[in-house]
Amino acid sequence: GREIAVRGDKLVVAQDADASNGSVDRFIVYTISPTSITLDKAYDVSQALWGIHLDGNTLYAVEDFSERVLRFDNFFELPAGMITPNKTVAIKSMVRTHGITYDRANDIMILTDVAAAASATDGAFTVINGYTNKALDNVITVAEQIIVEGPQSLLGNPVDIAFDRPSNRIYIAERAKDGGRVLGFDMPTASGDVAPVFNEVFAGASAIFLGNQRVKDVVQPEI
Q1: Which of 19, 107, 171, 215 has the most CB within a 10 Å radius?
Q2: What is the pTM of this model?
């Protein structure tokens, strides 16, 4: 399991292909309640998976080992079995996508790029304002992005990301720098090397979720 997303009583897990699961990339859907988790159905895909984000009945997913973002429409109504994305968008300049979050109210897509997994200095995140229109041609050019990267950013392997709309702040689980950090950035208005406004060591940080104005972290060391 790489990432989870929840809508109402449905929980989705993104499964990465591995010998232990038959080398299948898959979305597994569960029905949840405060006292139970019940398997609902599974969707197989041909793309390697990492981060996922639910926007109502639309699921966005990053394609691991690539610069691509996938969109699956009417996700929960699809029959079990093999599914294909309704849209695939290439994010130019990115090396390897991981973290993803989308703010529908402002139509902002925010993604992380771990680049080389062995490097603790080459990470980045990108903000795409007006994502829907910019993605119509299935390509997001560098000019259509705001990219934060560089030594001041402390980004090496930023593996997950969350956005706090009230404070207009982005939070990132950084896995590689000093063994793991939680970083916070004010929403950037231009590309460049920007220092975080929030910076705490958190060994093994690899997933992040923002709820009730608190940042919550999950340790999952594998990259």
Answers
A1: 171
A2: 0.93
